[in-house]
Each structure stands twice: as C-alpha cells, then as structure tokens.
Design a protein that fits this description.
425 residues; 6 helices; 16% helix; globular
Length: 425
C-alpha cells in the first residue's frame, strides 16, 4: 500500500514486494520530503530496475522500470560516447557514467540522475575546491556539522563534488514523451550542460517488419547550444541559444503511421553528431560567473575523433529485437474460463459480414489481412516437473534449419481462391 503518511522506505518496500505495472507509472512514493531524507534513502537502498524523479518540492516519483529496451539503449549509447577515447580504458579523457547523481537544476539541492552522464576526466578538468565547512550546530542534544550542499556553486559540481557532466542522456520507455522533454529541458537550465539527448521508445504495434519483429515508433531529440542555428533546429522558449532537433527513427513514423526510411546503418539523416569538444567546456570564471566572451572549448590530445556519431539505426534494431508479443494485443478478446487464451477475428471476404459493406481486403500483402503465427510455437515442449509442464521462464526455440521465424497467412489468397472456385449458379 502506497500512502503519503508512510515513510519513503515503507512505500518503496511495498513496491518491491507487490511489484509494479507499467500502467501505474509515474508512481508517487514520497511527499514533501527534505533533501536530507531523500539523500538518506538513496544512500541506504539499492534501487536497480527503477528510475526516479524528484521535483523541487521534494516529491519522489518512480517514472520508469528499466526493461531490456532501456538497458540495451544505454549500452549502445555508452559505446558511441566511448569511441573518441580510442580504446583507452583507465584515465580515458571522456568518462561515461550510468545514473550519475547531480543536483536538480533549480531544485533547491534535491538530487537527480540521468541515464547517462558524459564528463571530462579529472586529469583534464580537476575538482573545484570545496567551500568552507559550515559551523556546527546543536541538534537533539548533540553537536552535529550540517551537510554541505554544493548545488549553487560556480563552476557547478555533481553530488560527489566532481565537475558537472556536460552531456546528459535520458531514455524513456514507460515514461511519457512530455515528461521526457520536461526533464531534458531542466538539464539545459544548467549552463554547463552543453547537450542533452532524449530517446523515447513507444509501445509495440500489432504489425511486424520483414523479419517478423513488431513495429515500434521511436523519437530522438537533441538539445544543444550551437554557435549558429541549423535549418532543422527549433528554438527553445525562454532559453536563449538553446535549440532542439528531432528524429523519427523507429520502423514506423510516430506522426503519420508510415514506414520510416531508417532501414540501414550509416544513413546521414539518422545520425546525430555532437562535437566532442563540448565535453571539455570550461570557460574562465570572472567575477563569480563564466566568462564566455571569445571562449571556445578545445578537446585535449588523446581524443581520437572530433565528433560523437550516434547511429539511430543501431538503437532501433536493438529495441525491436526485444519487441516480444504483449500479453494481449489490442484486437484480441479474452476467452471466458480460459486464462491466457485470446481470440482475434478478421473479416476478409469481399463484403463485411456484420455491415454488408465492401472490405479493404483487395490486394495481397496487406498487414491488416495477414495472420502471423510464430514458428517456435510448433516446438513448444517445456520440461515436466511433478507430472505437469513447468512453464516458468520457459520459451520455445525453433531449431537450426528453420528458414523463417513466422508463419504468414495471407487472407487475400484464401479469399481469391474461394471466389475463383465458387459455384456461380
């Protein structure tokens, strides 16, 4: 049970014990909490598999469950951002970190973590000096030293006192497109964040691509601070010098439902280019503020290439690889008294049986008139435990030698055979 009257720990423990469904996201588990309380929770608890957001009022939300699409996208982006390191492992000029804790922009010291944070190595931009320790104070009958909060420092630092990351990446699967954009916009309020990459992966469609995987819509958005605006870029309101650019890179375009042209790697229209030098943006501080007049960042020696190249086709392919059939497709109807069994119906004659109108089954290879059955179902053979099939975590696998992964039943072919062979008398 989740309640605003219970502690953050109790609410999160309830989520872990009872499970969480995607339809319940975002789920609030904390209300108007202090920075100290939130810090203490994340210091004491491991939270793998969940992505959190904390607003400026101290409200804590679970916004994402980190499924395979999410973790795979992080893995691919990590590879792309490590390419300029030229294979250097330890002490590489660019550091790529997962769930790196930073201060929330304009968040009063509350924590926030991006899926990926790209920062300069401390050998290149060292830690800023910490501020003087605050005076001790009496609390509950004992003397304590208050916790240091460094969220207002210039140059800014992360929660560990290291230089603030310059590039942030956010991936949303359960999280909505609007919430993803809102968080990315917040990161750009910090001047030292030079770019933010947001990736939204939508739910599976019922149609499939040529290899039998379910179609998906995917959108990538890049926030950046270019020297001059490019033709495709859109200015961000109330953020001078900040622009966005968007790519529809799924198998299906989100806006019009048509197939995209993101069908191969290395297509310029589906590659995102980010200058590597942005990671090393570190202008001199004059009068307590960054002096950016005539300043241009420079990548240090040892950086292998001048640009990060994010190939969106690679992300698309990994995401649809995990596009397993949902428990129930939108057109399917549950069968009474048969849990887990569903039916789906097609009216594929020349005339619809229910309304007497002509159908749209007028040509072969129409997705709405094709029935797809996974070939692997032929080889369903779970182990027998205690005299019954043990289906926990079991998935059938088609053997080597099977040419395709799905049976495709084209109903137009059946329709035409019936029409050609019917009795015309």
């Amino acid at each position: 049970m989740i309640s605003q009257f219970l502690s953050l720990e109790r609410n999160f423990r309830s989520v872990e014990e009872k499970g969480l469904k995607e339809k319940h996201l975002p789920l609030q588990i904390g209300w108007h909490l202090s920075v100290e309380t939130i810090d203490a929770f994340f210091e004491r608890h491991e939270t793998p598999g969940y992505k959190f957001d904390i607003d400026s009022k101290g409200n804590v939300f679970i916004v994402e469950m980190e499924g395979p699409e999410h973790t795979t996208t992080i893995r691919i982006l990590t590879h792309f951002f490590n390419v300029p390191n030229g294979g250097i492992g330890r002490n590489s000029p660019i550091e790529v970190e997962v769930n790196s804790a930073h201060y929330r922009s304009h968040g009063g010291g509350n924590p926030s973590s991006s899926d990926l944070a790209i920062r300069p190595n401390l050998n290149i931009i060292p830690r800023p000096l910490p501020p003087p320790l605050p005076p001790r104070r009496r609390r509950f009958g004992r003397t304590v030293r208050p916790r240091i909060y460094r969220h207002l420092e210039i140059p800014p630092v992360d929660r560990g006192g290291r230089p603030h990351a310059r590039i942030m990446c956010e991936i949303a699967v359960s999280q909505s497109y609007d919430d993803l954009k809102a968080k990315c916009n917040l990161w750009m309020l910090q001047e030292y964040v030079r770019c933010v990459l947001g990736i939204k992966i939508y739910k599976k469609w019922v149609t499939r691509n040529a290899t039998g995987q379910f179609d998906r819509c995917m959108i990538a958005i890049l926030w950046s601070r270019p020297p001059a605006r490019l033709p495709r870029q859109v200015a961000v309101p109330r953020q001078p010098g900040v622009f966005t650019e968007e790519w529809n890179f799924g198998t299906i375009n989100y806006h019009d439902g048509r197939a995209t042209t993101c069908i191969a790697p290395n297509l310029p229209n589906y590659q995102i280019t980010i200058p590597v030098r942005e990671v090393f943006w570190n202008p001199p501080i004059v009068g307590g503020v960054p002096n950016t007049a005539r300043y241009a960042p420079v990548a240090p020696a040892g950086v292998a290439i001048s640009n990060f190249i994010i190939d969106l086709f690679d992300i698309q392919q990994e995401a649809i690889l995990w596009s397993r059939p949902p428990a129930r497709l939108p057109r399917q109807v549950a069968v009474p008294r048969q849990p887990g069994v569903f039916t789906e119906e097609w009216n594929f004659g020349t005339i619809n049986y229910h309304d007497g109108r002509a159908t749209t089954c007028i040509a072969p290879n129409l997705p709405n008139y094709q029935i797809t059955i996974p070939v692997r179902e032929v080889f369903w053979n779970p182990p027998i435990v205690g005299g019954v099939p043990n289906t926990a975590r079991y998935a059938p696998v088609a053997p080597a030698g099977v040419a395709i992964s799905n049976f495709i039943i084209d109903l137009f072919d059946i329709q035409q055979e019936v029409l050609e062979n019917q009795d015309n008398n």
